[in-house]
Write a structure and sequence with these properties.
The protein is 17% helix and 36% strand. The protein has helices spanning 15-18, 107-124; strands at residues 3-10, 24-26, 39-47, 52-60, 73-78, 89-99. The longest helix is centred in the C-terminal third of the chain and has 18 residues, at 107-124.
């Protein structure tokens, strides 16, 4: 699999940050179809300055926190990154599909699943 997505980082709801997994949310209106299938992916994220990070990427409708499931989002947790990249370009190279999006019963269950997903991403993208 080799799918590249790129866009401008925009403000989200800050839920990922509160759960301990801050995300860079891409402005979906800039991304040209076809989009990848909804789900969670292991990816490489490249910042505008060229730095690269392992990333856990969600493409979809965030069913645990958005009951309407109307607003497509593309959000990436950059492993080991701390900083402000709002308004900057971010490229995501999706390497491996991990799982479908699914509605969790609580934010605690979501947080535990994100931790498991991040461990999987780290194992896949060692190095």
């Amino acid at each position: 699999m080799s799918i590249r997505l790129g866009g401008t980082v925009v403000h989200g709801q800050q839920l990922g940050r509160r759960l301990g997994f801050p995300t860079a949310n891409l402005y979906v209106g800039e991304i040209l179809p076809p989009l990848p299938a909804s789900g969670v992916y292991a990816a490489w994220a490249t910042l505008a300055d060229g730095r690269t990070f392992r990333a856990m990427v969600n493409v979809g409708y965030r069913p645990t926190v958005d009951a309407t499931r109307k607003n497509l989002s593309i959000e990436a947790h950059l492993d080991g990154f701390a900083g402000d990249i709002y308004g900057q370009r971010l490229s995501l190279d999706l390497v491996c599909w991990l799982r479908d999006e699914r509605k969790m019963s609580s934010l605690q269950e979501l947080q535990a699943q994100l931790q498991n997903d991040l461990q999987t991403v780290r194992a896949i993208l060692q190095g």
